[in-house]
Amino acid sequence: MNARKQVPANTPVTRRPSRLAAWLDHHVFSLVASLGRLAAKPWAALLTIGVMAVALALPLGLWVMLGNAERFVGDVQEARRIDLFLKPGIDVDRARALAGELQARADVASVDVRTPEQGLASLRGASGLDEALQVIGENPLPSLLVVSPAGDELALADTLRGLPEADVVQHDAAWRERLDGWLRFGTRFAWALAVLLGVGALLVVGNTVRLDIQQRREEISVLQQLGATDGFIRRPFLYLGACYGVLAGAVALAVLTAVDWSLRPPLLALAQSYGSDFTLQGFSLSHAALVVVGAGALGWLGAGLVTGQTLRQTRATDT
User: pLDDT for 179-220, tens place per residue?
Assistant: First the structure.
């Protein structure tokens, strides 16, 4: 009888790591190795990150500017008043009665009555034409109703023009339409600029990764001969491109934040001089995180395109 070999009870049992654990370990190793390669060449890494940061900051800054302009236009459109100048023969009592009738309409938010005396006092204080107004003698100004619409302002303006007491209805919406057109053009221009500079960022990352691949060409050739897959070889370079992108996105956000802080005090003083509380609004935390993730994905894509092409060329050369 064959004697069965006895295994001591205290002998440790070695288990081979699962494929998932090995895959995760290589991802962690690739990320750490990529950070180490960045730290090994700080000046070259800073140059690449700086170029990518500028390429990202330009369209992002334009988007922020357009977003603030849209907020400002929204604030202006909320104060879209209609000035209804009554005929000279309409007295103040009739003007107030007409204001009450308009206030009862569903498409009118509020009506403010300004008497000829109030208009004359405002004109004297704003224009400095005291001597000319004294020469005129009699107050030439009519009563004014300042109407704030609650619905369609264009339809309300047409209705006010049809009133028998109406003399002049001042309502200029054309400038807002032109401003909306400029904002739409700016948005389209921002997208075009983002595409062009995004391609530039891809080329920067791709060229940097390509140089790193050329320096490790012999190592890659040995790994290919040992049967390593393209995914295994490509993974460290993908993480390298992603690290470039994430750091460039963070630098771009830091630059835009510094510009925002430097522009807020003079803009706030300018807005307060016009009686407005408008302030610049930068990136929220969610938008900032989206920028960083998007920049990392851009770096990952650039590295993936260059690495895949280089690996195919290397296999063709070896064969």
Answer: 777 778 888 888 888 888 888 888 888 888 887 777 777 777
- Locate the domains of the chain by residue range: 26-76+177-318, 81-172
**pLDDT averaged over every residue in the chain:** 77
CB-based contacts of 256, cutoff 8 Å, min separation 6 = 57, 60, 61, 64, 282, 283
Both structure tokens of 309: 């092409």
Q: Judge whether 149 and 107 are in contact, CB under 8 Å.
A: yes
Task: Count other C-beta atoms under 10 Å from residue 243's C-beta.
Answer: 21
CB neighbour list of residue 310: distance below 8 Å, 6 or more residues apart: 210, 213
User: Does the domain at residues 81-172 carry the CATH identifier 3.60.10.10?
Assistant: no
- 249-272 pLDDT, tens digit per residue, is 999 999 988 888 888 888 777 767
Structural tokens at position 9? 């009870």
* CA neighbor of 153 nearest in space, from 72, 101, 79: 79
* Residue 2 CB partners (closer than 8 Å, separation 6+): none
